[in-house]
Structures are given as structure tokens and as C-alpha cells.
């Protein structure tokens, strides 16, 4: 189909972990221990965490008797029933932790039913996966010490829904660390986790919308802000220059508008796209970062679920809305990092990089038609080795609402990566559009065509498209994987 | 035969109605049928309770249709509510690869990637077949009578279910038709009309040649159940008997001698010796909106089968069967030899090479299907293409609702097989191709050719 020797966007080294779709979410590394062992200056924090938990334990458990009558709830909540996707999180003991819509306490009876279902199936040494009823799919993720359930009418596949539940789980560990989460329930099964998660609901809400609408979650990849290779390199070296002497700095991430500008990392360590998505979500959902420099602990579950990294988070400047995160294992180096940030901004200003970023942010980007592909409505291209993807901006008929396009992609992606019968290629023509989905060793491609296109024209266009992306790859992808 | 055999892949199968008992401690009264008997009453009550819980839980969210399946790591549960409050439940054992797999190598479990819709169809079929012979659950005289007939019916029926070989054909539950020339078809129709107008107790008639339907006076939705019964149960049993020298002498001196041997296969099989009319099954048809009762009298001569749907209140006696035999036999023999002549001229030697493309065709309007991917229609699992391709076809069928009025899908599997689906005008056409090095363009060309030769005269939107 194409004459390319190396797929567009491929690079010898990648700052992001290479992802295959639907990869194993249980796999977690323990990079923190390694880093701490190399630089053993970090004090143990265990004792502190325990203190917080014990403090909370003294409060009395309330709400146990508040079981709302089922009928009342229905009367109140026609709107609630009609929601496209519910997400519930509960403890193994059936304690409500999170509900996307409605008040958890009023839904206590429902959480009870879900817990009963899970434990009923568990009693025969089995595990519940899903329930299907017409347009409604109920997907369960039992991940000790939590149970996550989604009730969806969105037509997403079971595996796609399960990935979203995994993201919610990761968001919770992002705040607490898995170690602490486990410890809490070891000490007290009946613990009301909401006490530790106040304010996190907002992040989970935002994450759910993010994972529903952004192709990045489906693809397990990130999109880069288009920049000339020289500009990106200058930015990377500005960061390296300012940070190279700082001990135990693990990642420096610069992003804007949900797109990656650069990622600088400690030698040997890579960032998993799923962790980066959590960071994107955090930045997007937190307006407060815009006002001042912040210092925030966060756990990146794919990097190390057992402990925290500490992040210096700030926007570059009033006149450049790119967000810089400096992640370290040290707990108290805010001022060191704040200083480094100032240096970075100065350098970027002097080398006109801020302008370049602003310019890229303000240009709407290219549609596939304006790039010369009139019969192609939209496409997603993912380079597997670097876990990065590119998509053109939306063009009609998807400018009014993006939803049909998202749905087409999700269906095609599911068919291609169906765990029991994966496919190499799929071409599907419906009354509204035609889609070609293609999975190769190096890349994944989804192209949406006008419905009347014939297969030979489609193949020819795909070949031309790949060549076009190859030509633009330096601008569209982050091809270097700089280290401090 | 009271000992119930273990059915490969089936964990349990039960029917219950929650409204039969609302008192605690009397849950057993809800259960109308339960397989296997080896599950003690506690287990039975627990399993029914689980379904009740799931039905209630799912109803909370007002799904577009009631709950149809539950997936767990080791099992697949299928639910079907054919009549209000009556639930049929079937639980399948799955062989999910685990670390301990070596320890318990249960070959009788089903593979773990089965399609819900295929087994949903199987469960529905299990209900429809019961309804054909016993009427609806609701119309049963009383609960005890219902329990008895359910026991009687399902004990045998479950043994005949071929769980492991269920595939897209179960979703169609289709009928194979025999295309005939005008002359032959008219002869069949005249024969049927003549029967129905001479005997006013014959309400409907169906006419089959081998496994192919030529004429049916009943609605397709009823015919598909009757057809499954004929092809799956009644005819194979009789063909076997004939093979063993039952009614047709094996080494008859002249082929014409056999022609005299048309006979009833429900009712008195040997009219000369018969003292009574024998066993004539009653069937219930529903297409007209209400249940109608008929005697199903089946007459077979050579390769032809005539099904007479006789008014349920008719008094059947030997005299009546003798007259029918006289009228049917002579006329039928002539028609059958005409059909046989016609068919022998039409025989095309099928392309048996491994790389030839195989197809499955289904028409949603008249429920007609044709398959060159299956080597027989006995659900034996004998396929002329990879099993994977047929499974992908079932998956594609599930996607049709998303395509709108018409559409096509072409996929290439990890093993470089191609599967193509085209749908238009309520027709579905699935093609499995084994051309490893072909490109998408080659495949679309190949499919175009195949549509031209195999689907002549069938309108397919070229989009």
C-alpha cells in the first residue's frame, strides 16, 4: 500500500512507553524505589500517612441507616435514569465512594445491590464481568480494594468501558497511591473513602468526559503541538539546561491545549501515555494552576503506584498559556524548581520560543481537505513506537457535533482490537460514510471517507496520506526523547 | 432413559416465574423446570434469586429491552423472557485460559469468545419449539400440568442441542428453498390447491423436497419453527429408518417398485396393518396473532415431504388416512419425478478447492438462507472455510444495525483470511475468501464477480 520504509513519526528512542492497545492495566512498575536507592536523601513518609488515616477513623460512621425508598428515587430522578453513562465506585464492603450523577448516600441501596452481585459471583470462585440489556451495558471492574461499575448507553464496547474504569481507578490512586489505598482497607474494611477524596470527584468527572471524547485514551497515545523541529529542540535544551543540575528530577513536561510540547526525562525512565493522560486531565481540570505556581503530590500509577512524585506546576507566563510540570521525588524543593522555571521562561523568551508556541496555539491547524485530501473527511494516525498520534482539525459534516465521528472511530477501533478476534484491516461502508481501519507493526490508521469512495481510490489516498504525514513528521511529532 | 446425561458446555437450564410464589421459604414454587437434577434445591433457589436480582437491578436503568446476558470469567448466562414473568435461563461453561488450565482440562467447556446473539437465538429456539407442541406457558391448564409438559419436552430437547457448533445459522434460523422452473412450481401449487379445496379440514399445506422447501401455506415465522423440527428431528429419524430397509426395500428389483411406497410418517405408518391412527402430533401456530391448533400429518414419498395442517377439532380415523393416501400418492409420485428430473439438470459440481470462496446468504423477508460454507445442515460443525470466518460473520451481523439501509464490510484477519459482508434491501450476503496475498482491491473485484454469478436478479445496492 505504501512505499515508506519507516512509518511516519517513528524515532529510535521514545520518551513515552510504547503501547499496544488494550494492554495490561495491572502491570505497574516500581521505579520510585530505584530512584530513591540511588539517591537516598529522601526521608520515609509512611508515618505521616498513617497519622492522617487514624485521625479520620475517629469520626463516627454516619448514613448507614439512610436507605431511601426506591420509589421516591425514581420519582425524583427521571433525569438521572436517562443519563448516557453512569459510573459508580464502591468499596469491597459496599460503601459508596463515587457516583457520576446524583448523591451517593441516596443511592446507597444501589451500591448495596452492586456489591451483592459481585460477592455472589465471587462466592463460586468466579468474577463478574458484565451484564447486557438491549442498549444498556453494565461493566464491572473488581480491582481490590475497590469495585468500579459503569452503566452505559453510549455504544462503546465492553473493553473501552473497562479502560475508562481503569482510568478512574488510576485517578484515585493518583491522589492516594495504591499502597495507601490498600492500607486503609486493611485497617478498616468499612472506611468511608470519600473523606480522603473530597475535591477528587471533580477530577473524576472531568476524566470521564476526557476519556469519552478524546481519541488519545482510545489509542493509548498523545498528540503533540505542531512545532518546527528546531523550536522543539530549543525548548527541550532550555529545560535540560536549567534542570540538569537538580537532583532527582524525574520528568519535565510542557503541554498546552491538551497537546504535548516536550517531555524531558531522567535517563532510563519513560512515561506511560496513561499517566500522561492523568496529568493532562489534572491540568485541564484545575483552573487554579493558572493563577499561581503550585506544589502538588501526585502518584503516577503506571510509573509507580506505591508512592508520590511531587510536582511544581505553573503556566509559562501571562502571555503564553503553556503549562510546565517539573516532577521530582524530593518533597521540599519547591523553590529550587521555581527558580529553574524562571530560567526556562527567560531562555524561551530570548529565543522567541514563546511566540512560536503562541503562534501554533492560535493557528487552527489543517483540515484534511486543505491538505489536499478532499475525499478524506478525517483520520487518526498513531505511530506505535513513540505512542504519539496526529489528527487533522474537524471539517464538515463533523463540525456541528463530533459525536458521530467519535462513535465511528470507537466502533472501528473495537473491531480491529477485539481481544478474541483481532483484525489486520477493515473497510466498512455505511449509508453515511466509509471507514478504513488498518493495523500494522509500526502504525495504526483510521480514515473516514465519503461514503461513495471505491476501494481502489481509498487505497491510493491512504498511500498519499502516509507520504504526506511522513513529509510533515518533524513538525507533527516529537521525534527526540531528551534526557536531563 | 430416566438418567440425565451431562450435556457438554451446559451448566444449567431453568424456567421460572417469580409471581408464582411471593412467600419467603416457598421459593421452590417459582421453579417450573430445572436442569440438572443434580443441583440441590438450595443451589436452584440461589440461581433463580440471582436472576431475579439482576432483572431488578438492570430494570432500574430502563434499558431498551430486558436483560439478555451476564458474563463472568468462567460462565455465560443467557436470559430470555418470552412471556410476561416467565424467564428461560441457560448457563454455559466457558474454557477461559488460566494458569491452572493444565490441571483441569475440561474439553466439554465452550470456548470463551462465543457470541451472545448466537446463544440467545438458541435459547429462543428452545422456547419456540416447546410452544409449537404445547402452546404458550400461560395457556397451560395449571402449574402442575405445565411442569409436567416442560419436564417431558426439555429432558429430550436439551440432549439434542448442539451447543459447540452453534453459529450464525442459528441467528437466522432460516429456511432453504428449492428454486424450480415455472412448470414444476405450478404442478406443486396445483397439487396443494387441489388437496386443500377437496378436504376442508386441511387448512394449510407445506411441500418439501429433501431438505428444501418448495411451498408453504403458513407464515414464515411459524414455518421456520416447523422447518427446524422437520429438518432437525423428524426427517433424519425417518431417513435413517428408510436406509435400514424400513418401508422401502433396499434391493428392490425395479426402481419403480419404490414409487408405490409413499407413507405417513406421523399417523399410521403402515396402513395395511394399522389398527389405530397412531400418534399424530398437535401443533400450535401463532402468526395470526392468536394461537391456532392443528394436527400435523406428514406424508413422505421418495424425497418429497408433504405436511398437512389439519384443523384441531377434526376427528381422525383410519378411513380418512386411507383416502388421503390414495389421493396423495399417485399425484405426488408424478410431481416428484418431474422435480427430480429438473434438479438433475441443474446440478453444478461445486468448487471444492480449498481456496474457493464460500458464502452464506440470508433474506430477512422470507427467511431463506443458503450456505456453501457449511458442508451439511445438521449443525455438525463441518465447515468448508475456517471456523474463525464464520464467527466473524456472526459478529458482522451484529453490526448491521449501525450501517443504515445498506452497507458493506471487508475485513482481513490475523491469519490473512478475508471476510466480506454486504447488506441491502433486507438481504445479507457473507463471503469467506482464502486468498492470502490478495489486496483489498483484489477482494472487492472478486466479490463483485461472485455477486454477479450467485445473486443474479437479487437487487443489491452498489452504493
TrEMBL record, chain A:
Residues 375-473 form the FUZ/MON1/HPS1 third Longin domain. It comes from the Eukaryota. Residues 85-207 form the FUZ/MON1/HPS1 first Longin domain. One of its GO terms (cellular component) is Mon1-Ccz1 complex. InterPro entries: FUZ/MON1/HPS1_longin_1, FUZ/MON1/HPS1_longin_2, FUZ/MON1/HPS1_longin_3, Mon1. GO terms for biological process: endosome to lysosome transport via multivesicular body sorting pathway; protein targeting to vacuole. Residues 247-346 form the FUZ/MON1/HPS1 second Longin domain. Pfam families: Fuz_longin_1 (PF19036), Fuz_longin_2 (PF19037), Fuz_longin_3 (PF19038). Belongs to the MON1/SAND family. Plays an important role in membrane trafficking through the secretory apparatus. This is Vacuolar fusion protein MON1 homolog. It comes from Psylliodes chrysocephalus.
TrEMBL record, chain B:
Pfam families: Intu_longin_1, Intu_longin_2, Intu_longin_3. GO terms for cellular component: Mon1-Ccz1 complex. Residues 354-450 form the CCZ1/INTU/HPS4 third Longin domain. GO terms for biological process: vesicle-mediated transport. It comes from the Eukaryota. Residues 10-135 form the CCZ1/INTU/HSP4 first Longin domain. InterPro entries: Ccz1 (IPR013176), CCZ1/INTU/HSP4_longin_1 (IPR043987), CCZ1/INTU/HSP4_longin_3 (IPR043989), CCZ1/INTU_longin_2 (IPR043988). Residues 202-327 form the CCZ1/INTU second Longin domain. Belongs to the CCZ1 family. This is Vacuolar fusion protein CCZ1 homolog. The lineage of its organism: Eukaryota, Metazoa, Ecdysozoa, Arthropoda, Hexapoda.
Amino acid at each position: 500500500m505504501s512505499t515508506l520504509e519507516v512509518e511516519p513519526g517513528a524515532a529510535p528512542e521514545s520518551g513515552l512507553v510504547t503501547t499496544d492497545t488494550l494492554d495490561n492495566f495491572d502491570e505497574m512498575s516500581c521505579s520510585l524505589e530505584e530512584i530513591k536507592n540511588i539517591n537516598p536523601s529522601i526521608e520515609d513518609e509512611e508515618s505521616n500517612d498513617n497519622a492522617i488515616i487514624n485521625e479520620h477513623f475517629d469520626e463516627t460512621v454516619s448514613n448507614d441507616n439512610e436507605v431511601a425508598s426506591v420509589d421516591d428515587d425514581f420519582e425524583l430522578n427521571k433525569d438521572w435514569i436517562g443519563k448516557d453513562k453512569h459510573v459508580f465506585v464502591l468499596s469491597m464492603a459496599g460503601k459508596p465512594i463515587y457516583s457520576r450523577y446524583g448523591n451517593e448516600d441516596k443511592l446507597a441501596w444501589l451500591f448495596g445491590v452492586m456489591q451483592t452481585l459481585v460477592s455472589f459471583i465471587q462466592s463460586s470462585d468466579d468474577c463478574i464481568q458484565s451484564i447486557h440489556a438491549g442498549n444498556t451495558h453494565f461493566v464491572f471492574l473488581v480491582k481490590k480494594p475497590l469495585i468500579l461499575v459503569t452503566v452505559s448507553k453510549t455504544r462503546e464496547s465492553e473493553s473501552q468501558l473497562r479502560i475508562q474504569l481503569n482510568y478512574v481507578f488510576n485517578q484515585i490512586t493518583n491522589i492516594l497511591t495504591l499502597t495507601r489505598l490498600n492500607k486503609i482497607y486493611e485497617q478498616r474494611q468499612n472506611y468511608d473513602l470519600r473523606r480522603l477524596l473530597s475535591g477528587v470527584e471533580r477530577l473524576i468527572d472531568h476524566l470521564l468526559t476526557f476519556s469519552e471524547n478524546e481519541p488519545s485514551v482510545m489509542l493509548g497515545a498523545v498528540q503533540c503541538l505542531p512545532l518546527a523541529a528546531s523550536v522543539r529542540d530549543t525548548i527541550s535544551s532550555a529545560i535540560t539546561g536549567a534542570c540538569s543540575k537538580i537532583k532527582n528530577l524525574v520528568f519535565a513536561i510542557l503541554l498546552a491545549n491538551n497537546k504535548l510540547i516536550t517531555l524531558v526525562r531522567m535517563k532510563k525512565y519513560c512515561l506511560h501515555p496513561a499517566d500522561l493522560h492523568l496529568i493532562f486531565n489534572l491540568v485541564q481540570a484545575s483552573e487554579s494552576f493558572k493563577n499561581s505556581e503550585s506544589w502538588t503530590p501526585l502518584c503516577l500509577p503506571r510509573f509507580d503506584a506505591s508512592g508520590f512524585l511531587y510536582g511544581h506546576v505553573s503556566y509559562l507566563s501571562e502571555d503564553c498559556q503553556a503549562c510546565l510540570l517539573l516532577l521530582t521525588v524530593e518533597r521540599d524543593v519547591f523553590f529550587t524548581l521555581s527558580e529553574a522555571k524562571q530560567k526556562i521562561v527567560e531562555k524561551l523568551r530570548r529565543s522567541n520560543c514563546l511566540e512560536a508556541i503562541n503562534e501554533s496555539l492560535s493557528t487552527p491547524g489543517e483540515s484534511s481537505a486543505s491538505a489536499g485530501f478532499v475525499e478524506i473527511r478525517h483520520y487518526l494516525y498513531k505511530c506505535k513506537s513513540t505512542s504519539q498520534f496526529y489528527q487533522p482539525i474537524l471539517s464538515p459534516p463533523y463540525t456541528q457535533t463530533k459525536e458521530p465521528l467519535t462513535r465511528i472511530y470507537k466502533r472501528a477501533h473495537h473491531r480491529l482490537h477485539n481481544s478474541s478476534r483481532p483484525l489486520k484491516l477493515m473497510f466498512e461502508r455505511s449509508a453515511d460514510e466509509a471507514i478504513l481501519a488498518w493495523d500494522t507493526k509500526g502504525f495504526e490508521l483510521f480514515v473516514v471517507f465519503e461514503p461513495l469512495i471505491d476501494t481502489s481510490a481509498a487505497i491510493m489516498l491512504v498511500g498519499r496520506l502516509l507520504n504526506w504525514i511522513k513529509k510533515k513528521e518533524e513538525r507533527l511529532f516529537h521525534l527526540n526523547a531528551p534526557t536531563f | 432413559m430416566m438418567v440425565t446425561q451431562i450435556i457438554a458446555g451446559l451448566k444449567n437450564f431453568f424456567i421460572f416465574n417469580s409471581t408464582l410464589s411471593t412467600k419467603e421459604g416457598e421459593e421452590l414454587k417459582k421453579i417450573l423446570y430445572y436442569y440438572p437434577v443434580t443441583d440441590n434445591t438450595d443451589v436452584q433457589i440461589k440461581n433463580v434469586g440471582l436472576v431475579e436480582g439482576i432483572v431488578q437491578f438492570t430494570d432500574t436503568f430502563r434499558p431498551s429491552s430486558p436483560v439478555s446476558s451476564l458474563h463472568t470469567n468462567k460462565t455465560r448466562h443467557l436470559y430470555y423472557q418470552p412471556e410476561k414473568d416467565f424467564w428461560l435461563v441457560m448457563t454455559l461453561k466457558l474454557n477461559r485460559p488460566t494458569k491452572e488450565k493444565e490441571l483441569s482440562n475440561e474439553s466439554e467447556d465452550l470456548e470463551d469468545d462465543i457470541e451472545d446473539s448466537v446463544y440467545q437465538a438458541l435459547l429462543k429456539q428452545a422456547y419456540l419449539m416447546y410452544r409449537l407442541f404445547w402452546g404458550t406457558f400461560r395457556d397451560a391448564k395449571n402449574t402442575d400440568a405445565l411442569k409436567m409438559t416442560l419436564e417431558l419436552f426439555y429432558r429430550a430437547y436439551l440432549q439434542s442441542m448442539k451447543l459447540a457448533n452453534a453459529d450464525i445459522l442459528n441467528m437466522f434460523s432460516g429456511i432453504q428453498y428449492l428454486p424450480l422452473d415455472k412448470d414444476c412450481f405450478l404442478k406443486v401449487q396445483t397439487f396443494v390447491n387441489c388437496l386443500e379445496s377437496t378436504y376442508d379440514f386441511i387448512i394449510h399445506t407445506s411441500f418439501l423436497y429433501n431438505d428444501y422447501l418448495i411451498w408453504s401455506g403458513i407464515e414464515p415465522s411459524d414455518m421456520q419453527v416447523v422447518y427446524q423440527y422437520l429438518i432437525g428431528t423428524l426427517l433424519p429419524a425417518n431417513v435413517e429408518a428408510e436406509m435400514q430397509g424400513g418401508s422401502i426395500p433396499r434391493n428392490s428389483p425395479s426402481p419403480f417398485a419404490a414409487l408405490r411406497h409413499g407413507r405417513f410418517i406421523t399417523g399410521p405408518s403402515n396402513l395395511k396393518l394399522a389398527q389405530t391412527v397412531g400418534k399424530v402430533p398437535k401443533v400450535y401456530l401463532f402468526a395470526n396473532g392468536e394461537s391456532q391448533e392443528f394436527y400435523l400429518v406428514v406424508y413422505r414419498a421418495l424425497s418429497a415431504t408433504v405436511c398437512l395442517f389439519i384443523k384441531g377439532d377434526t376427528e381422525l380415523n383410519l378411513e380418512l388416512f386411507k383416502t388421503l393416501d390414495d389421493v396423495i400418492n399417485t399425484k405426488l409420485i408424478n410431481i416428484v419425478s418431474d422435480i427430480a428430473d429438473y434438479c438433475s439438470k441443474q446440478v453444478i459440481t461445486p468448487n471444492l478447492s480449498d481456496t474457493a470462496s464460500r458464502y452464506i446468504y440470508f433474506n430477512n423477508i422470507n427467511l431463506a438462507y443458503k450456505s456453501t460454507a457449511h458442508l451439511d445442515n445438521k449443525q455438525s460443525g463441518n465447515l468448508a472455510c475456517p471456523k474463525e470466518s464464520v464467527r466473524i460473520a456472526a459478529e458482522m451481523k451484529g453490526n448491521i444495525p449501525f450501517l443504515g439501509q445498506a452497507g458493506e464490510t471487508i475485513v482481513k484477519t490475523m491469519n490473512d483470511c478475508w471476510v466480506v459482508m454486504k447488506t441491502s434491501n433486507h438481504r445479507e450476503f457473507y463471503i469467506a475468501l482464502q486468498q492470502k496475498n490478495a489486496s483489498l482491491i483484489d477482494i472487492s473485484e472478486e466479490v463483485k464477480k461472485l455477486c454477479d454469478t450467485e445473486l443474479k436478479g437479487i437487487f443489491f445496492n452498489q452504493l
